[in-house]
Amino acid sequence: MKKVFIITGEYSGDKHASGVVRELKKICPDVVIEGVGESNLEKEGVKLFRNHENMGKMGLTPKTIYQHLVLGLDIVKYLKNEFKPDLVLLVDYGAFNLQISKHLKKAGIKTFYFIPPQIWASRKHRLKTIKKNVDKVLTIFPFEKEFYDNEGIKSEFVGHPIVSELPECNNKEEFFNRHGLDLNKKLIGIFPGSRIFEIKFLLNIFIQAVKLIEKTRNDVQFVFSHANSLKDDAFDAPYKKIKNENHELLAYSDALILASGTVALEAAMYNTPMLIAYRGPFIFYLGYLLVRNIKKACLVNIITKKDYIDEFLMYDATPKNISNCINEILDNPDKVNYIKQGCLEVKNLLGTTHCVEVVANIIKKELIGG
């Protein structure tokens, strides 16, 4: 009986990994799967060794370092002495999983990495850890495979999870009616982030930008997205706030104000005009400047190698800059068409592959061949 152990550290990784489990069980029903995750993996029948209670937290505080260290040691001990998996699948959560990979290598446990750290963007030194300790990298961007191939690291491009995970949204009128929105007004969707520290640095900036937009026009309405990963009382805003319907908000908005991240890629799949903004602690930004490999931040711009989406980072992330850009999107059809051209280019580059099916088949081949 073959055994697989999956290590995730955040909601998105748990969600993507659950899709892999679902497909793997279809083609390899006898496989035993355990892991570190949350409700998505648990719903697919995965026995959880630990959940994310002490994971996904921002900052190198003594407490978070200690919690991650203890968790890592517990996982490695369990895998070496008790579970003894045929394969460990690391999913995202780079800092933690790269450290785990070192111990797995020493224990002689085969390790694959799905959704690897974005080394092409920053901290290229991590390549040494991956090359030494990871048996195969399963990349989600087409340009990543060439990046790893050039370094002599085994890799396969499997497609991006969102291509098959994003739901179709085709009932705008029902969504508007259910939330008391005006179909005659343009909708601005605001996504201030999925982590507490992002809310801390971005929420007030976004609120002030909205107030500036309100001063110049009365044909708009605003809805703030409450990320699924955040507790219900994580933040307050003097505007409508919606949770668990983020995809609908992405699809039905006329323009989007986004914290930088995967959400920009999701918006592109829905062909929705957007801007991205990001601000964090200066010390972290300084560190980023020292280790980054590219100057772009928005995934749409990175994938296309062009500047389709406006990026407002750190001290450029001001209410005035954001409000001016949104007004331009709302009033300038040429700008909208240009952004949508970028969205279409991203779709073409990512293709239509069902990522989790590809990953499941790669794992099956490794476990039992064929």
Secondary-structure map:
Elements: E1 3-7, H1 11-27, E2 32-36, H2 39-43, E3 47-50, H3 62-83, E4 87-91, H4 94-106, E5 111-114, H5 126-133, E6 136-139, H6 142-150, E7 155-157, H7 162-165, H8 172-178, E8 186-191, H9 196-216, E9 220-226, E10 240-243, H10 246-252, E11 255-259, H11 263-269, E12 274-278, H12 282-291, H13 299-304, E13 310-313, H14 319-331, H15 333-350, H16 355-368
Parallel strand pairs: 1-2, 1-4, 2-3, 4-5, 5-6, 6-7, 8-9, 8-11, 9-10, 11-12, 12-13
Explained architecture:
The radius of gyration is 21 Å and the shape is elongated. The chain has helices spanning 11-27, 39-43, 62-83, 94-106, 126-133, 142-150, 162-165, 172-178, 196-216, 246-252, 263-269, 282-291, 299-304, 319-331, 333-350, 355-368; strands at 3-7, 32-36, 47-50, 87-91, 111-114, 136-139, 155-157, 186-191, 220-226, 240-243, 255-259, 274-278, 310-313. The protein is built from 16 helices and 13 strands. Strands 3-2-1-4-5-6-7 form a 7-stranded parallel β-sheet, sandwiched between helices. It has a 6-stranded parallel β-sheet with strand order 10-9-8-11-12-13, sandwiched between helices. The chain has 2 domains: 3-159 and 353-368, Glycogen Phosphorylase B (Rossmann fold, 3-Layer(aba) Sandwich), CATH 3.40.50; 172-350, Rossmann fold. The two termini are 16 Å apart. The protein has 370 residues and is an alpha/beta fold. The longest helix has 22 residues, at 62-83.
